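Lab channel / #folding
Pinned by the channel admin:
"Please post every new chain as: sequence first, then the structure tokens as a reply. Keep commentary short and put observations after the output so the thread stays searchable."

First post following the new format, from NK:
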Amino acid sequence: MALLLPGQGSQHAGMAAGLYDWEPVFTESMDEVFTALGADGGRLRADWLATEPGTPVDHVTRAQPLLFAVDLALARMVAGWGVSPAALLGHSAGELAAGAFAGVFEPADAARVMWDRAGRLAAMPPGGMLVVAAAAEELTPYLRGDVVVGAVNAPRQTMLAGPAAALAEAAAEIRAAGHTCREVPASTAFHSPVVAAAVSTEAYAQLRLGVPRVPLWSGYTAARLTPEQAVSASFWARHPVDPVLFGPALDALLADGDLLLLESGPGQGLSGLARRHPRVRQGHSAVLPLLPARPRGAEEDRRSVLRAAEQLTREGYGPVRLPAAVS
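Reply from TO:
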């Protein structure tokens, strides 16, 4: 079994909040992140749980730290059930959560670095991201004005990133050419030169970095993370500006062996991408999301997690040892 940990674009208000104060490992992990951030963590928690948050979840200072916290808490929750992943693959911010789960960073240290990173990104010029149903090479004519390929998610799904005005112009031309595209919930041009000034190697250089205890496939190299990369401050620091190669990384992961791909994060965006992979379509690998595709409230969060636990048992990954409070 491999965990897929999603990044920017998968966030929504109250994501996974139905598991808080219900699943003990999940709750403890979320609280560890909030505590590590001090007063900022208290405000982050309040906005996460609020019906009307003071800062909306799509703002980078909410989306990125909360995605990190939720992805990590879900991964630890599954491990707490006695189900150990054989591999990890994160998308963007999800790779930092994967690194924390695998022991590359101490979770509290990674939380503080993520908070620092989000603050730096918030200070960058306004920008955005655009998902296009086309191969990356088809979009070359639209790459101008600092608009670049920010992510390759699948053979026919490419994400562009760039300044707001230039990206809007590109979107109009892309639609006129007959391609389907949609804006990602982001006001920052992640994975583009627009955010180059937000890169801070110093923040990572102060951490004690280690080799992952669980094999980690990187969405930035489309290969298994090497020991040298794992302990490289510059490798991790460049994540906000470098393109994400999730599709090629998933190819490499499944070329290494067939797996159950368990999405450890809000929504089912990575599950949708994985279901279209040839190894999954041919029945060699399978996909299982932990949470609902769309926000449906606390009870549905819990039902979805319990269904996933039952499926893991049926697939031979059990018996899943659920805490008494939730079983």
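NK: The chain has two domains: 2-124+192-314, 127-183.
TO: also worth noting, The chain is about 40% helix and 15% strand.
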